[in-house]
Amino acid sequence: MTANAMDQDREACLAVGMQAHIAKPIRVEEMFATLVQWIRPTVRSDLADHQQLPSTQDEAAELPEMAGINSHLGLQHVDHRRSLYWELLAKFNQRQSQAAAAIRTALEQQEWDTAERLSHTLKGLAATLGAEQLQRLAKQLEQALHRDDAVAAGCTDLLEQLASELRRVCGSIEQALAARDTPDIAANTPVTVQPEIDSSQLATLFQQTATALLHCDSTAESLCASIADLVHQTPRQQKVAELQQQLAVYDFDAALALLQAWAQQEGIVLDGME
Asked: From 158's CA, which of 91, 200, 226, 243 has a CA 20 to 30 Å away?
């Protein structure tokens, strides 16, 4: 599974013994169709219940039109999970809004590898969001840099096009995020009020999440999101944020250690952790 999606990348993976090649951005149906060719699917009864948990406010909210972004395509890449898609939009705007400037600086300093890496990262993230034109420009720039064409006159023009499209995409994301957080939007969106934490539901989620983490199961991410919904607007939010930070870098062991410590504080006994 890689963001290197060109034919020669696929051939190189197969040549060294990989069974198949899945390119990013991930299309969930295509990923599972490839996986079932090589593994036998099983049903995990201890994790099945999490699929019945209530959806968050963001899952029910419609996405606004955003210039330069095909949100329908982006939602396919995150299995139509709107809350995750909103999170990716915010992170992209925060971390990639200055990507063109960073690439320009690398080119001025003749750091070709750095410029190529930055272009590659931008390409992959733009593809995940569904920012198709931005993805195409970043891919063209990455390919030019890979061919050592960084000093060519066309590279400067290409970078300017990329910078312009990046400003358009980030501007539309900022507007969408601001609109989502305005009182009018919130007033028109049903909100579930939870005056107290349901301790039995919290214990159930803790057990399901711990089991998923123990088996390095990616469903831990959605279970953690459900915990976040349950403890919303309580001091426990910081603990959820710490768990999500570890999951974001796929450190399941660290996330499990944090969850076990938190469970002990809550007086929750986790089974099967030995």
From this structure: 91
CATH topology for the 71-187 domain: Four Helix Bundle (Hemerythrin (Met), subunit A) (1.20.120)
What span, in angstroms and rounded, lies between the C-alpha atoms of 8 and 83? 35
Instruction: Determine the length of the chain.
Output: 274
- Smallest CA-to-CA distance from 39 within 53, 19, 66 is with 19
- What average pLDDT is seen over the chain? 81
Q: Distance between CA atoms of 67 and 271, rounded to whole angstroms?
A: 49
Query: How many whole angstroms separate alpha carbon 14 and alpha carbon 10?
Result: 6
145 CB-contact burial (10 Å; exposed 0-12 / middle 13-18 / buried 19+): buried
Outline which parts of the chain fall under CATH 1.20.120.160: 71-187
Q: What is the pTM of this model?
A: 0.54
3-state secondary structure of 66: strand
